[in-house]
Specification:
single chain, five-stranded antiparallel sheet, Immunoglobulin-like, 639 residues, 4 domains
Length: 639
């Protein structure tokens, strides 16, 4: 079960992402910066992410769409975040991998008109996926990409009873106190002169969740666009997922991130009549057209209807009970999205806007972003399916995807060095894992217990903590004309082991151990120095020992975790905590000996060459690099 199942509710409103942009440039981490760097469009950002003016606009229960409070009082209730703690945070994995921005520490509540919380939950941290150029026109600096988040809501509580059949049904379907959530973000404003600065539109869905199923995608039918990650999509429709339910008697399709919009505040672009169908055969390639004799139509997508998108978040259920032919074909033939007839002939010839993966096969890593400490292990779950059913005993090939990841962040510094930082295949080597009868396979990600030291330097990227790695994957028996989802690879940040936690070591001091770390984050987040604590200044830091100790002690999932970027490993944070908890003769953490002044180069003597030139790595800027990498690798070979 997932957000595509019944019962479900839909919401729309605004989201705010007040991200700091200084850390988009690699050179911003150097102390002092060797070259000027671009602080980006929002250098004073706090990292906050939250819903604003968000309300339940529709629901689906017992085969019926509900759009009015008279049908269920849940309509009109608001979707809010925490009211007794800090908002969630939105952070990139790394300045060299900004295409998996992840939400941490976000609480999700449903609030009644009487301002009573009727449902409260924690959004399990998750990155976005399926970015594409959704917005056709925009004001200067508009972020014209759209994306989608899918995760689960954990620790679901129901503090206040509500006379709502939809909420009652959701409560009964919250297995393990969990629900499924999916929301689409678009129309984001980056121009300080417009009212929606740091804000954009959000539409989403909350539905049931069943233990043991994927948390970040639907174990259903996958339709991947041929246009690539950032090119205008073939047929003006982007990747989507669907699910056959009710024992084959209905089909639910999520169009929430699939239709283009003209401007940030416009509705969905009208591209003519769009139909959902199932092919009458199982071709070995993706079709561009199909005549009426080759497809069974399931229904029309009512995307141009007034309020359809806001009331459904683009999720549409098509009954199949009266369409016996479609019910018979669906288990073994691909779904298609059909556009206006390609010609005026009768019977019509349809344009194929989108087609289910060739032979219906698909494999996906559930969680695809990992942060891992030295010596630690984490489990990556893979699910292989065919036409939405488990693909038993599927062989899955794992490979090194560092070249693809490097194209996202640019170079230098080099990534995936040392090669044994984590146990992903090296170079052209591959590994194979095999799914069970349920199509589920696992790979144990293992980080090197000795850290990432290269030539004595525990930070192999110089002044950047940790190292990036990427794991590619695909079905070993992937069809020749298969169209892969370019987002289907795993990004990994392996943390460094900079400090030896030997108890015989001298205690850390400000000048030797803490100031180099704190000064870096002071540069990256000037908003903190301005309003909270100047991390570059000893006196300011020791005046805030209590709050800093708490923040560096908090788990990664907490909204107040420091650093907000989640890019400092446990070993480095442990040294910070050790220092904060150590007192010298004056009752304060030890200051140590100031470093000797740096020598100024004599006249005529060359300054050291900067090995890390300016890198502008905002999301829009890296798109071209990524597309070039895809083109170079070939359409179907990205691993």
């Amino acid at each position: 079960m997932s957000y595509l199942d019944s019962p479900r509710l839909h919401f729309r409103g605004w989201f705010q992402a007040d991200v700091s942009t200084i850390n988009n440039a690699v050179t911003a981490y150097e102390l002092p910066p060797a070259e000027p760097f671009d602080p980006g469009w929002n250098p004073q950002g706090t990292g906050i992410v939250r819903f604003l003016d968000c309300a339940v606009t529709g629901a689906y229960l017992d085969g019926k769409q509900i759009t009015d409070p008279s049908g269920d009082p849940v309509i009109g209730m608001t979707i809010q975040n925490a009211n007794q703690r800090a908002p969630g945070k939105l952070v990139d994995l790394d300045p060299q991998q900004q295409m998996v921005s992840m939400i941490f520490g976000m609480q999700v509540r449903i609030v009644s008109p009487a301002l009573e919380t009727v449902m409260q939950s924690e959004f399990k941290p998750a990155p976005f996926i399926n970015l594409w150029p959704r917005q056709l026109e925009g004001v200067p600096m508009d972020q014209q990409l759209g994306a989608v988040y899918q995760s689960i809501l954990e620790g679901v509580e129901w503090p206040t009873a509500a006379e709502s059949p939809v909420l009652d049904a959701l409560r009964k379907g919250a297995h393990g106190r969990k629900l499924s959530i999916d929301f689409n973000v678009f129309g984001y404003g980056r121009d300080p002169k417009i009212p929606r600065y740091t804000m954009g539109h959000v539409v989403g869905t909350i539905g049931p969740y069943r233990e043991g199923e994927p948390e970040h995608f639907v174990l259903g039918r996958q339709m991947i666009n041929q246009g690539g990650m950032f090119n205008p999509p073939t047929g003006n429709i982007a990747t989507l997922q669907a699910e056959v339910g009710d024992n084959g008697r209905s089909l639910t399709v999520d169009f929430g991130n699939s239709f283009e919009i003209e401007t940030a505040n416009s509705g969905l672009k009208d591209i003519g009549t769009v139909l959902v169908g199932v092919l009458n055969s199982n071709p070995d390639q993706v079709l561009s057209t199909v005549d009426a004799a080759g497809v069974t139509v399931i229904g029309e997508v009512p995307y141009t209807g007034k309020d359809w998108y806001t009331q459904t978040a683009g999720v549409q259920t098509f009954p199949l009970s009266a369409n016996g032919e479609a019910m018979k074909l669906l288990p073994a033939n691909p779904l298609v999205l059909l556009g206006p007839s390609a010609s005026t002939v009768v019977p019509p010839v349809y344009s194929v806007l989108l087609q289910e993966s060739v032979n219906g096969v698909y494999v996906r890593a559930d969680q695809f972003v990992f942060r891992i400490e030295p010596g630690a292990s984490q489990t990556i779950d893979f699910y292989a399916t065919q036409f939405g059913a488990p693909l038993a005993n599927a062989a899955i090939t794992l490979s090194n995807a560092s070249a693809l990841l490097a194209s996202l962040g640019g170079t230098p510094p080099d990534i995936s060095v040392p090669t044994d930082g984590v146990n992903v295949p090296v170079g052209s080597d591959t590994a194979t894992i095999t799914a069970g009868a349920d199509g589920h396979a696992q790979f144990t990600l293992q980080a090197n217990a000795n850290g990432l030291t290269v030539n004595g330097n525990p930070w192999p990227r110089g002044y950047l903590e940790g190292q990036l790695y990427a794991l590619g994957y695909q079905l070993e028996a992937q069809p020749a004309n298969y169209v892969p989802n370019p987002f289907n690879f795993v990004s990994i940040l392996a943390y460094s082991q900079k400090y030896n936690q030997n108890p015989n070591n001298p205690p850390p001091t400000w000048y030797d151990d803490i100031q180099p770390l704190f000064a870096q984050y002071s540069n990256l987040y000037p908003i903190m120095s301005k309003y909270v604590v100047d991390l570059s200044d000893y006196d300011s830091v020791v005046s805030r020992i209590g709050i800093l100790y708490l923040a560096f002690s908090l788990p990664e999932s907490d909204p107040n975790h420091m650093p907000v970027t989640r890019d400092l490993g446990a070993a480095d944070r442990a040294v910070i905590l050790q220092w904060l908890g150590t007192t010298g003769p004056d009752g304060l953490p030890p200051k140590g000996t100031p470093p000797a002044p740096k020598q100024v180069a004599a006249a005529g003597e060359a300054e050291p060459e900067d090995l890390l030139p300016i890198q502008k790595a905002g999301k829009t800027a890296v798109i071209l690099r990524y597309e070039r990498a895809l083109a170079k690798a070939g359409k179907g070979d990205k691993k």
